[in-house]
Amino acid sequence: MKIKVDQNLCIGCGLCCGICNEVFRMNEHEKAEAYQPANDDNQSAVQDAIDSCPVSAIAWED
C-alpha cells in the first residue's frame, strides 16, 4: 500500500520517521518521504504516523 507525503505541507518534524522508520525517512530537503510501501506488518504504524502528523501531510494513495 502506497503512502504520499505532501512536500508542500511537511514541516520536517520527523514524527512519522520516529513512529515508522520502515516506511518513512527524511530526504535531502529535510522533509519526510515514504521510501517503502506499507505492508501488513507495519500498516498500523503507518496509520499512527498519518494520524499523528501535525500538519496532515501524509495520506494513503489510491
TrEMBL record:
SUPFAM superfamilies: 4Fe-4S ferredoxins. InterPro entries: 3Fe4S_ferredoxin (IPR001080), 4Fe4S_Fe-S-bd (IPR017896), Fe-S_cluster_ET (IPR051269). The keyword Nucleotide-binding does not apply. This is Ferredoxin. Residues 1-29 form the 4Fe-4S ferredoxin-type domain. PANTHER family: FERREDOXIN. PROSITE patterns: 4FE4S_FER_2. The keyword Protein biosynthesis does not apply. Keywords: Electron transport, Iron, Iron-sulfur, Metal-binding, Transport. Ferredoxins are iron-sulfur proteins that transfer electrons in a wide variety of metabolic reactions. It comes from Blautia hansenii DSM 20583.
